[in-house]
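Work Package 3 (structural annotation) set out to generate three-dimensional models for the target panel prioritized at the project kickoff. During this period the team completed the workflow that converts sequence records into discrete structure tokens, so that structures can be stored uniformly alongside our sequence database. As a representative example, we reproduce one entry of 331 residues exactly as it appears in the project archive.
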Amino acid sequence: MFYRGVRKFQRRCCMITIKHALIVFFVGMFVVLTSAWMLNTEIPAPLTPAPVIGAPLIVPKRIFSRPKWDFTLKRICRNPPADSIQQENLTMEHQLPSHTHLCSLPVPQIERTYAWYFNNIQTICGHLKRFGKVNDGGWDVCLEKNLVQKNNCLVYSFGIDFDFSFDDQISEEWGCTVHSFDPSMNTPSYRRSSKVFFHNIGLSNFNGTTPDANWTMLTFQGLRQRLHHQKVLPDVIKMDIEDWEWHVIPEMLSSKSLNGIKQFLVEFHFSNIPEADSEGFWISKLFLIKEIYAMGFRMTWATRNLLNVWRSRVTGKDIIGCFEVTFIRRL
């Protein structure tokens, strides 16, 4: 009985061993075949976030088009506009000299006046916040309730250069609808997100196309008509359009397009061109800034763009060529 039990035990052990061997064999064959298959099969790339529906391929090529000016001093100062009584009486408020006085200044004194003006502010904002990058690309917005209502605001952003940090953040954190414009990016119009819309159109003082870069350009009123915004106004206008502001803003003033606008963010470009040696270059620009002041806009913040610093050929001193200014309407 004992030996019979031992033989039964041996047979069982043998059967178990054979089963184990078969299992090991088939597992080994599976591993070998799987490895061979994987070596001859392309491994899929890691998953990436899905792009926004309709977002085009961004072509990293920017086209430039510069406006042309006439800085003839006699033309600029022939009939300088009269200063308003309001400007003359508000002597305690930080403002530029009268038009007649500006026309009498030599270049060195005008350069000092320019630096002095943009290094001071004219009013205080109780709730100032920067949207976008900390350095170039971000903008400071006054969020006082009478200026910008959270989740019920409209922003026009002119000049992108592939940097949507301002547009994205003010839409995500403050709930604003943003229309972004830039014809220089060689990118078709598309919907970037649920609240940000990109338009391959530039802001100008005329409706048409530029002869050199073939950009589609519209006036402020033309853009509002294109967007069917005739009955609504943007709460914030942000403008960084590489010297075109000196043509665009006069058209906006003469057409009364800035009427009703509560906040105006502008990067003023004082480019290092040969005409910068003349009085007319500076006076024409300061005249325009005085007109913005006369419209009731007050400077509440100004940022020096230190990426644009050049040496004056008249005084030999460094000049900051760009100031990013936040104007808010106080009158």
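The two ends are 115 Å apart (CA to CA).
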